[in-house]
Amino acid sequence: MKIKWFGHSCFLITSDNGTRILTDPFDEQVGYPLPHTEADIVTVSHNHFDHDNVSVVKGSFKHIKDAGNFTHGDISIKGISTFHDELGGAKRGKNIVFIYSIDGITICHLGDLGHVLSEEQLEEIGQVDVLLVPIGDIYTIDGDTAIKVIKSINPRISIPMHYKTEHLSFKLAEPERFLEKIDGKRYPGNELTINADNISEYPEVLTLNYL
C-alpha cells in the first residue's frame, strides 16, 4: 500500500488493488495546497474546517464520520469515539479515531485526539502497524503527550501530523522538539510504500514532506 501526506491531518492511503482512502481533507484557510483527488472512501474525524472539506474530493465516495464498523471490498474500518480535548469534549467536542485494515497492515489515524487513551480505548484500537498521530498542541495533544500515546499503542511506525509548517496558516507547535525527544527522522518524500516485508526497514518515527 501507499501512504501519501497532503499536510495537516490529510493522507491518501491507496491499497494494492487501488482502493483509495482520504483522511480529514482541509479547506483553503489551512494554507496547504488543496488535496484535489479522487477517493473511494473519505473519513472525517470531526467537523472542523481543517478536517471535513469533503467538497474537495472528486467523484463519488463513501463518507465515514461516525464511530462503528465499516467495510468496503477487502478493507475494514473501525471508528472509535474519543474527545477533542482533555475534558471529555467540554471544550471542543468529540473526535473519531479510525482504524484501517488494508493489505495485512493496520493503520490508526488519531484525528484531533485531545487526551491520553483509556485502557478500554487501547483495547478497541488493538495492534497497530502505522500510527498517524497529532503533535501540535493547542487543539490536540502536545508532543510529550503524543510520546505517551505512542508508547501506549506501541506501533511499528509513527508518523506525526497536525503541527506547524511553513505553509500552515495558524499557530501550532513545530515538530523539532518532539522529534529530538523521540529520535524521529525526516523522510525525504511525501509518500511511503509499505508492506509486510519492508515495514521493518523504516524508522520507528518519521515525518513526511507534504509537497
Automatic annotation (TrEMBL):
| UniProt cross-references to Gene3D superfamilies, sorted A to Z | Ribonuclease Z/Hydroxyacylglutathione hydrolase-like
Q: State the InterPro entries in the record.
A: RibonucZ/Hydroxyglut_hydro (IPR036866)
**Pfam entry (one):** Lactamase_B_3
PANTHER family the record matches? MBL FOLD METALLO-HYDROLASE, METAL DEPENDENT HYDROLASE
In Swiss-Prot or TrEMBL terms, this protein is called Beta-lactamase
Which species is the source of this protein?
A: Ruminiclostridium papyrosolvens C7
Upper lineage is: Bacteria, Bacillati, Bacillota, Clostridia, Eubacteriales
